[in-house]
């Protein structure tokens, strides 16, 4: 079975729709949605409703820091653009949509796979996996062979051998990577709704539970349409521009 790993949707209807269409074309049989469904983008209600329906149909979903901020208020560390988007977003969601976000778990485990937004060692602190050190700390915090997380908006893959040797590399889109059974793995698919690696195409990844192969994907989408929604909402222009440049 292929699991589509999608994270950091950030209220980007156009990107999420394109990724779902692509995943369907690749015969994805399950979906794991790794948080940050809202924030930054201009269509939070549509995205939350789509995620709710997918969860009702069997998808996995976990809470992200922007989802939490919409419920509890912006974090002190949030930049002005993010803070403005959080405050605007809360006013766009109804009671049922907010209740859905509030009920999201911090992490979920399925067989030998851990799904979490930020990291495995302290999910509620929202610390970033910015390099090998944080990745190894996360892998040491779980017995799962595979950890899939978001939060960082750039695709990345880390591994830890049984002897404690660590490694990392930036994946090439479209290339299947065999995840060897004698290692632990931590994969960051990259952001669906707001990529930040200089490539504006939406990110996600596919994990094959039979072959144990992981394939990172990039999907073009209607950036102009998504940017127009941000501008129509009166959100900061920088949030619209980022979609066009992927920075």
Helix amount: 25-40%
Output the structural class.
alpha/beta
Strand content: 15-25%
Overall body shape: globular
N-to-C order of helices and strands: EHEHEHHHEEHEEEEEEEHH
Question: How much is the average pLDDT?
Answer: 95
Instruction: Give the CATH topology.
Output: Purple Acid Phosphatase, chain A, domain 2
How many domains in all?
1
Beta strands, count: 12
Distance between the termini: 33 Å
Assign the CATH architecture.
4-Layer Sandwich
Strand arrangement within the widest β-sheet reads: 3-2-1-11-12-9
Protein name: Metallophosphoesterase family protein
InterPro entries: Ap4A_hydrolase, Calcineurin-like_PHP_lpxH, Metallo-depent_PP-like, Pesterase_MJ0912
Pfam families: Metallophos_2
GO molecular function, one term: phosphatase activity
Could you characterize the architecture of this molecule?
The protein is α/β, with parallel strands linked by helices. It has a single domain (2-245), classed as Metallo-dependent phosphatases (Purple Acid Phosphatase, chain A, domain 2), CATH 3.60.21. 34% of the residues lie in helices and 23% in strands. The protein has eight helices and twelve strands. It has helices at residues 13-25, 44-56, 65-72, 80-92, 95-102, 132-140, 223-232, 237-245, and strands at residues 2-6, 30-33, 60-61, 107-110, 113-116, 146-149, 156-161, 166-169, 176-178, 183-188, 202-208, 213-219. The chain starts with a strand and ends with a helix. The mean pLDDT is 95.
């Amino acid at each position: 079975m292929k699991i589509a790993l999608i994270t950091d949707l950030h209220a980007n209807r156009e990107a999420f729709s394109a990724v779902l269409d692509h995943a369907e074309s690749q015969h994805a049989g399950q979906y794991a949605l790794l948080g940050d469904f809202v924030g930054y983008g201009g269509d939070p209600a549509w995205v939350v409703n789509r995620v709710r329906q997918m969860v009702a149909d069997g998808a996995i979903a976990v809470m992200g820091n922007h989802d939490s901020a919409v419920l509890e208020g912006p974090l002190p560390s949030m930049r002005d653009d993010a803070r403005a988007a959080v405050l605007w977003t809360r006013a766009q969601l109804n009671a049922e949509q907010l209740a859905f976000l509030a009920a999201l778990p911090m992490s979920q485990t399925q067989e030998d796979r851990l799904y979490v937004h930020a990291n495995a060692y302290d999910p509620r602190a929202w610390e970033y996996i910015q390099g090998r050190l944080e990745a190894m700390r996360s892998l040491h915090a779980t017995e799962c062979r595979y950890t899939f997380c978001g939060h960082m908006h750039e695709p990345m893959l880390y591994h830890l051998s049984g002897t404690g040797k660590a490694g990392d590399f930036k994946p090439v889109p479209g290339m299947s990577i065999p995840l060897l059974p004698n290692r632990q793995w931590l994969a960051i698919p990259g952001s669906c709704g707001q990529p930040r690696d200089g490539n504006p195409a939406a990110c996600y990844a596919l994990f094959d539970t039979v072959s144990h192969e992981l394939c990172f994907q990039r999907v073009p989408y209607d950036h102009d349409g998504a940017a127009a929604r941000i501008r129509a909402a009166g959100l900061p222009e920088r949030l619209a521009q980022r979609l066009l440049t992927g920075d």
